[in-house]
């Protein structure tokens, strides 16, 4: 048995380096813009990951006025506050957030279809 014990390598964690790299990469906060299909041709655009110090209601008011659509701010237990807009507004929202200076273009992730 002692021969087998000496041949078994010590505990090696192949993901140890990856976890260290992910912790630094995780500090980069992304804004996720998603589209959800409702019924038929109807869809819903969600925006999450904006900084906490921003006023979500003021951003929503500007988005609604700019894109002529309705929307709301929903409080989610896991994701925090999420902005919901009617229709597929992914491209519009991303350009709006960049032009308003709220988010850099590199920090936006667009999901869906």
TrEMBL record:
Task: Please give the residue ranges the record annotates as the region Disordered.
Answer: 1-24
Gene3D superfamilies linked:
SUI1-like domain
Q: Name one GO biological process term.
A: regulation of translation
Picking any one GO molecular function of the record gives: translation initiation factor activity
Which keywords label this protein? Protein biosynthesis, Translation regulation
| UniProt domain SUI1: residue ranges | 31-101
Q: Which domain of life is it from?
A: Eukaryota
Keyword Protein biosynthesis attributed: yes
UniProt xrefs under InterPro entries: SUI1, SUI1_dom_sf, SUI1_euk
* Function according to Swiss-Prot or TrEMBL: Probably involved in translation.
The family line of this record is:
Belongs to the SUI1 family.
Q: What is this protein called?
A: SUI1 domain-containing protein
Q: Which organism is it from?
A: Capsella rubella
């Amino acid at each position: 048995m002692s021969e087998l014990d000496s041949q078994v390598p010590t505990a090696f964690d192949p993901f140890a380096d990856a976890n260290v790299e992910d912790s630094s990469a995780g500090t980069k906060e992304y804004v996720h813009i998603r589209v959800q299909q409702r019924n038929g041709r109807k869809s819903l655009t969600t925006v999450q990951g904006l900084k906490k110090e921003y006023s979500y209601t003021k951003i929503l008011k500007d988005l609604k006025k700019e894109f002529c659509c309705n929307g709301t701010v929903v409080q989610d237990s896991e994701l925090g506050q999420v902005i919901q807009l009617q229709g597929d507004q992914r491209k519009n929202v991303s350009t709006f957030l960049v032009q308003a200076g709220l988010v850099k273009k590199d920090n936006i992730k667009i999901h869906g279809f």
